[in-house]
Write a structure and sequence with these properties.
Blueprint: E1 8-13, E2 18-24, E3 29-36, H1 38-50, E4 58-63, H2 73-80, H3 92-120, E5 124-128, H4 137-144, H5 152-159
Parallel strand pairs: 1-4, 4-5
Antiparallel strand pairs: 1-2, 2-3
Helix pairs in contact: 1-3
């Protein structure tokens, strides 16, 4: 995929609260960073598709919905101090594992819907493997110089496009 014509990179970290960042490749700055609901994100994507000026020069980067396992075994084992197989659904660790699996499954589905919606509307898209390390707010501000309010979701969306 040729990226030479792309001027705007939009990063979306999918979930109940979608982190969204608009990165201007020419100016090398984040133009907008926000947290949106699923409906607001779908509307944002639709507005890009409606714009004759923006649609041809935009690529939407969405965290790959299939990159994360529904249960992070290493974290679960480390937190519980016992083997993964020894957990039961009724145990505290089992309930935590089920909650993590539900959250990851929900976020995967939101990611798939957003990716399909953007593709259906004819916007260039790319499913991106999430970065292995997160930025905290201080790191985000130091790296990007962004001055507005941000949430961790928005920071994660920014990580998908920063420097592209």
């Amino acid at each position: 995929m040729s990226m030479q014509h792309i001027k705007l990179c939009i990063g979306i970290d999918p979930g109940v609260h979608n982190g969204l960042a608009v990165y201007n490749r020419s100016l090398k700055v984040l133009k907008d960073v926000q947290t949106l609901t699923v409906a607001e994100t779908l509307n944002f994507i639709a507005k890009i598709a409606e714009s004759k000026e923006l649609k041809p020069v935009t690529c939407i980067y969405i965290e790959n919905p299939d990159a994360n396992s529904p249960i992070f075994k290493k974290r679960l084992i480390a937190s519980a101090g016992v083997g993964y197989e020894q957990k039961t659904i009724g145990s505290r660790e089992g309930r935590i594992a089920l909650k993590v699996a539900q959250d990851v499954g929900r976020n995967k589905e939101v990611g798939r819907v957003l990716l399909q919606w953007a593709q259906y509307l004819g916007i260039q898209t790319e499913a991106v493997t999430p970065v292995s390390t997160k930025w905290d707010k201080a790191q985000f501000l130091a790296y990007t110089g962004y001055k507005g309010k941000v949430t961790q979701h928005a920071i994660d969306g920014s990580r998908l496009v920063w420097g592209r």
